[in-house]
Structure formats: C-alpha cells, structure tokens
Amino acid sequence: MGRPEQQIFIDKLTASLLSVKDNKVAVIDTKELQSLFDLAKTVNFKRQTNLEKISEFDSDLNYKGITMEYFKSYNGLFQNEIPKAILIFGEKSEDRFERVANLILPKLKVTKQKELALKQAQIDFETKYKELSKSQAKRTGSDYEFVKLKDFNFSTTTLKDGAKIELLSFSGGDNLSEENIYYKQFIGIDKTSGDTLRILALAPIQHYDFDKALRVGTYMIDLQIRNQMTASDKEYIIFNTNQADIEKGNYKTVFGILNFDR
C-alpha cells in the first residue's frame, strides 16, 4: 500500500518551501500542489466526520475528545493557512519563503502540541486496556454473549484487501454450537484512514490468540457479496462481556478475516 494522501501532500509542501528558500526565483508547480492538497483535504475532513459519529466509550480518558481537538487544529490549517500558502508559492516575489513560513509555522506549533497530547492519550489508552486484559480471568463461555446478526443494528462499509488494522478488542468465544454460524468480532482502527471499524469474521476460518498474537492484522475479504446477503436466523455475532464498553460502540462494519502472519 502507498503512502497516505496527507503525507504525500505534506512532503510536496515541504519540498516547495525548501525550494524557494534555496532559490528565491524557483518555479513551483502550484497546479500539482493544489491537486495533492485537494485529495489530502478530502481525506482529512472525511476522517473528522467519521470520528464525530463515534461515541466516547471512556470518558475518563477522553480519547475521542483529544483526537477531535487534533483533527480540528490540523484541518483548520488545511482550511485557512495552506490555501493562502499555495497562492504565495505561485507568485514571483523573492520573499515567498519568509511569508509562507510566517503564515503556517505558528499554526503548526499549535497543531504539534495537539499531536503530542494525542500521542499521550494513545499511550494512556493502550496502557489502561492492556492492564485490563491482563487482569481478567481466563475466558470461559460465561464471558461471552451471542447476538443474532439479523437483530443487531449496524451499517456496512467497504475496506480494501491489505488494509492494516490495529486492534482494540477481540471476541472469539468457545463452546460454539455446530448448528449455528458464528462470527468472531474485532474492533480496530484502520491505520490508513484512522476509522474505527467492526470486523466480523466467520469463526471456522478466523484464528487468533489474543494473549499471544500481534495487535496489527491485515484485512482480507472472505466473500465479495457478503454485505448484500440477508442474514439467516442461525447467524450470531460473538460479544465479549469484558469488552462491552468497546464492542457496543456504533462502528461501521465489514465482513472478512484478519491475517496475523509475522
């Protein structure tokens, strides 16, 4: 998978700034810069919109709130300062480096502070839930509940083969009846888009040991038309009662499996 659109644009913006620093009369391809900017901006605001739909499931950590503050600061830069910077790059003046730097650097410093707060929130989140998973007793059948797929209110989305998913929770279940169809459940973050997703994997073909396996998996589509099929009366989603705060969230859902090969 290639680099995210945001990083491609930021790299181009940085290269343009260095060009006019080294050569005051350097010609910048503002059409390409604008095109990359438009793509990155679209992804940024879609990511923020998706986050707004998710409920904060741990108010003590305020993970969503801190993430939203970072997104708003970052997207504010895309909304205000960067379009002005692109216009300056298109001029023939020799003070473009100073003007662009003075325009975007103050906002970048603020955004960097928000980013550091977000990284700390991520550490706090991982620490808390890692400790919770360690302190839990060995999982038995009583740790799980089974919800009929047709009765569970969710909306589907699409995800490309090969997407990297960082796990927040997993429900595998045990003592499963051979008469029914079960879906193991992952809640994870798409490392490209930043979206939090629910991934439902057919139990017989999904293998994962929460205590030993990697925490980042590679998504694979198991059945192309699964999102359009009507659920039967014997299909169940496995929920882990110890992870209810996470698993009961309102996430977009995809069907498929996660591969954890090292």
Write down how many β-strands occur, each being a DSSP E stretch of 2 or more residues.
8
Question: How many separate helices?
Answer: 5
Major sheet details: 8 strands, mixed
Instruction: State the low-pLDDT regions, or none.
Output: 133-141
> How do the SSEs run, as a string of H and E?
HHHHEEEEEEHEE
* Rg (CA only): 22 Å
Provide an overview of this structure.
The longest helix is centred in the middle third of the chain and has 40 residues, at 96-135. The chain has five helices and eight strands. The protein has 262 residues and is α+β, with helices and mostly antiparallel strands.
In short:
The protein has 262 residues and is an alpha+beta fold. The chain has 2 domains: 131 residues, no CATH class; 119 residues, no CATH class. It has 5 helices and 8 strands.
What labels describe this entry?
262 residues, alpha+beta
Q: In terms of topology, how is this protein built?
A:
Layout: H1 5-22, H2 30-52, H3 63-89, H4 96-135, E1 144-148, E2 164-171, E3 181-190, E4 196-202, E5 216-220, E6 235-240, H5 244-247, E7 252-255, E8 257-259
Parallel strand pairs: 3-6, 4-7
Antiparallel strand pairs: 1-6, 2-3, 2-5, 3-4, 5-8
